[in-house]
Amino acid sequence: MADKPIRVLLVDDHQVVRRGLRTFLEVQDDIEVVGEASDGAEGVARAEELRPDVVLMDVKMPGTDGIEALKRLRELANPTRVLIVTSFTEQRTVVPALRAGAFGYVYKDIAPDALAGAIRSVHAGHVLLQPEVAGALLAQDDSPGGTGRGPSLTEREREVLGLIADGRSNREIARALVLSEKTVKTHVSNILMKLDLADRTQAALWAVRHGLTN
């Protein structure tokens, strides 16, 4: 039996953008567009109604923007993974979006096949950043008031963190490092505590920012 298609919701205030995305995505065998929304508030409502696997969300929209929508989805504990698709490249937009819970951030000039790949990657639990976005994060990290490299992690914790950023589950990490799942859970808890992070997504973003991904 074939796997179920990835259910996608499109959130963008420009109808022509939504139409273009839908036209391309509907020819992908493993992706299904289940709905559209024209602003962040409607996007949150539709995400709650439809429970898509992935939301493609613009940042700058009238009324409720993408970052506020991300915050609302997190408050609602909605499991949908959000991939930001936008034309805004400024650091002041990239960093808040990722901190608000986006699993990825790509630009609207991304090649269609690369966008489909980004959707699959985010759906699989990976953090997806275009090189320019990663560069913005690193620039922010080096700026005055940036986070720096943060508290010291042990070598094993750095290995675990790198695998979290690769989208591995605790069981997969345990197998890769020949550890028990209980030990991996302890490492994950220690990592989150040391870095003052709320969850695995934030940990994965931290790993990307600090070059710990494979």
As an assembly, this protein is single chain
SS elements, strand count = 6
Q: What is the count of helical runs?
A: 10
Helix- and strand-based class? alpha/beta
Radius of gyration: 17 Å
Strand content: 5-15%
What characterizes the major β-sheet?
6 strands, parallel
Mean pLDDT metric: 85
Major sheet strand order: 2-1-3-4-5-6
Q: Helical percent range?
A: 40-55%
Topology order in helix (H) and strand (E) letters: EHEHEHEHEHEHHHHH
Straight-line distance between termini: 32 Å
Query: Low-confidence parts, pLDDT < 50 over ≥5 residues?
Result: 142-149
Overall morphology: globular
Structure characteristics:
globular; single chain; alpha/beta; 51% helix; 214 residues; 6 strands
Description of the structure:
Helix 7 (155-165) packs across helix 9 (181-195). With 214 residues, the chain is α/β, with parallel strands linked by helices. Strands 2-1-3-4-5-6 form a 6-stranded parallel beta sheet, sandwiched between helices. Helices cover 51% and strands 14% of the residues.
